[in-house]
Write a structure and sequence with these properties.
Layout lengths: L1 H22 L4 E6 L5 H12 L5 E6 L4 H13 L7 E4 L4 H6 L8 H7 L5 H6 L1 E2 L2 E2 L2 E7 L1 E5 H7 L9 H11 L2 E3 L6 H13 L23 H16 L11 H8 L4 E6 L3 H11 L4 H5 L1 E4 L14 E8 L6 H11 L2 H11 L12 H6 L3 H10 L9 H11 L11 H13 L6
Parallel strand pairs: 1-2, 1-3, 8-9
Antiparallel strand pairs: 3-11, 4-5, 6-11, 7-9, 7-10
Helix pairs in contact: 7-8, 8-10, 9-10, 18-19
Length: 427
């Protein structure tokens, strides 16, 4: 009898010992990341080491495209998944996550620390309803890229701001292209939003409204018509190229490497891409030597351009069992030194303004100061919980670019956005 009792005690103790072993050591924080070149995994290792045993930060890879990343995170958060401690979020989805209470509130001391010396565009993109809801990590913006030889031949002084009208006119005169993102995809929304914001307007009048019935679309405005006129002029002039309707960022970068290249609006990845092509022997060095860069074109002469804003911000899962540690890890991830190293290794610009001063950044990206200035003026896309519906409606009514007109496209977009949000139309 005693032997059976002893055996039973041993059997019962075994699971308890296993649990004790599993719980030994620091907690593991899971950081769901977008695919990159390995930079986020490196930062996770650095922060694990810097925590002095407080936590282990482990990355979990999300799908490659942003909509699929959103879908996976939303499904898990809707199920109150406690495994999501930290996540890399595309800025347009932040209002949706915040509105659904999927994000743990940012403590005041964390908010103060992670917004110090951070680009204004990045802080705005990390906020919702006038409150910081995520931590700015890396920020992105588009520049106006140009061929120096073309600008010189056209008589453009690229040390001064230039307008879309000047760029289109110069390209037509020199028989070269202006590469823009005309494909029916998110990149088209990025372009249109930048045009509207640069003209002093907004796609939505009240983007933070949480009742879809009360959201007011505001493209049917002077700013919306200015934006539509620019799209129409570019398409009618033919400088957008034969592939305008399908042109995305990668197609544009390829165009800019060709013999007919003149101007392009695009993200900074085109610089390391061009250098890599030269190193591989697929592109002559003289092509990249001819690259120039400047601030995004003005929609209205004399008015500050509002370039596109993109990048990744860090959200802490509302259902995490280690919220305090997750915010501690987030502060480590966005350390300016980590951001500078990440820019150099992966080509993703910092949200930290001081990170641009790093000598390695200045050497790798000679246009770093222009990127920093652009981020200070960049405008986020509409920060609405209904972003998918708004963006899809805009893409449907502003594509193809040749169909865009100032008298029709803004009104059609407003009508479709309103009908979709009020349940009268489907996308």
């Amino acid at each position: 009898m005693r032997r059976r009792a002893a055996l039973l005690a041993l059997v019962l103790a075994a699971p308890l010992a296993a649990c004790a072993t599993a719980e030994a050591g620091p907690p593991t924080l899971l950081w769901y990341i977008n695919p990159d070149s390995g930079g986020q995994a490196r930062i996770a290792r650095q922060c694990t080491e810097a925590s002095d045993g407080a936590y282990r930060l482990q990355t979990v890879l999300l799908p490659r495209d942003a909509p699929s990343q959103r879908e996976q995170l939303v499904r898990r958060l809707a199920a109150r998944d406690t495994s999501i401690d930290l996540m890399s979020i595309d800025p347009p989805f932040i209002p949706e996550f915040a509105n659904a209470d999927f994000l743990a509130p940012v403590p005041d001391d964390v908010a103060a620390a992670v917004t110090q010396d951070v680009a204004e565009g990045a802080v705005a993109g990390a906020s919702f309803d006038d409150e910081l809801v995520t931590v700015p990590f890396w920020a992105n913006t588009q520049l106006l890229w140009y061929r120096r030889s073309v600008a010189e031949a056209a008589g453009l002084d690229m040390t001064q701001p230039v307008t879309w009208d000047q760029v289109i006119e110069a390209a037509a005169e020199q028989d070269v292209t202006v590469a823009v993102q005309g494909v029916r995809a998110e990149s088209l929304t990025v372009w249109v939003n930048a045009l509207v914001e640069s003209a002093g307007g907004h796609i939505l009048e009240n983007p933070e409204e949480q009742d879809p019935q009360e959201v007011v679309a505001s493209l049917d405005s002077d700013a919306g018509r200015v934006a539509a006129q620019i799209v129409a002029d570019l398409a009618a002039s033919g400088v957008g190229g034969a592939q305008l309707n399908n042109a995305n960022e990668d197609i544009n970068a390829s165009m800019f490497e060709g013999s007919s290249a003149g101007f392009m609006v695009n993200w900074p990845f085109v610089w390391p891409r061009g250098q890599a092509a030269v190193e591989s022997g697929s592109l002559d060095a003289s092509v990249v030597d001819d690259y120039g860069w400047a601030m995004y074109p003005q929609a209205v002469a004399g008015e500050q351009a509002r370039p596109p804003y993109g990048g990744i911000n860090l959200g802490v899962g509302a259902f995490s069992e280690h919220v305090d540690l997750a915010y501690e890890a987030a502060r480590c991830v966005v350390d300016p030194q980590h951001q500078a190293e990440y820019f150099v290794s992966d080509g993703n610009p910092p949200s930290s303004l001081v990170a641009f001063d790093d000598p390695a950044v200045q050497e790798a990206f000679p246009m770093a100061d222009v990127i920093r200035e652009s981020l200070q003026n960049a405008a986020p896309r509409p920060q609405t919980p209904f972003y998918n519906e708004v963006s899809s409606s805009l893409q449907r009514t502003w594509h193809p670019p040749r169909s865009v007109s100032p008298d029709g496209s803004p009104q059609r977009a407003d009508r479709l956005v309103t009908d979709v949000l009020q349940g009268r139309a489907l996308l």
